[in-house]
């Protein structure tokens, strides 16, 4: 099938979000967003009979709460409280910002998705070309196994070796192409886990992109030594020093705390420097640092001034001592069978 931007937008609006006639769909963007994508999704929402609205702001100087000083916080919050669907195409994401927190806390009908820096090629590659139903069966099985495990270990050829406890009270999000129910949704192809706070120990090595501050792969792998879920040492090349300086610039202890880990499972994702796509490169794991939403880790989450993410390529994963993935490929027989469409 010839997948175009228009058909990919229709898949997002109609299949993934299940937008209905009469619903209010708000699309947010900033000065660095690709407006051809925004326009295509707006047109698709209109064809679905929805009321589509685009809100564009000047590009903030930071992401999450660090974007707040550059946002019309009250006006944007008020609009989002009326949304049935909010899709953000911002370059500097509003996820975890004050308008995001207000909307998530007060608008119980809203379905939200963060599609940072989307361009037409990315839209087609990671949404239009993905066989959602096949991927969904595979991802739901891994999600169930992860939620039922007590411990998880991850290694990579680059030197990552980290273990932690899984907290059943924290939300395990399976973004497998279903954003038809209220809540926080992300691009298809990611399973997000918030470990038990204080339980993460070992070494994490970012050999994929790190965002912010780079948005690219660092000049040498960045090695983080983790004790009780906190970064105690950062090593690597010159970019490692830049990364450490970035974390210290917030003058916030929370920016040295690990937030979450995610499996990457989007068949079309490639390493491009766009964190939303990079987090979904097949067989990778991604670590978030800093802020955790109260919705992901009730009742209080983990407070921090901002959030950043780094990618660990070709990951091996053990759940309660049983290996399910080896350097990005399934080794469990049933998971291997479910992933046959990709592997």
Automatic annotation (TrEMBL):
It holds the Pfam family NicX. One of its GO terms (molecular function) is aminopeptidase activity. The keyword Disulfide bond does not apply. Keywords: Aminopeptidase, Hydrolase, Metal-binding, Protease. The keyword DNA-binding does not apply. This is Aminopeptidase. It comes from the Bacteria. It comes from Blautia aquisgranensis.
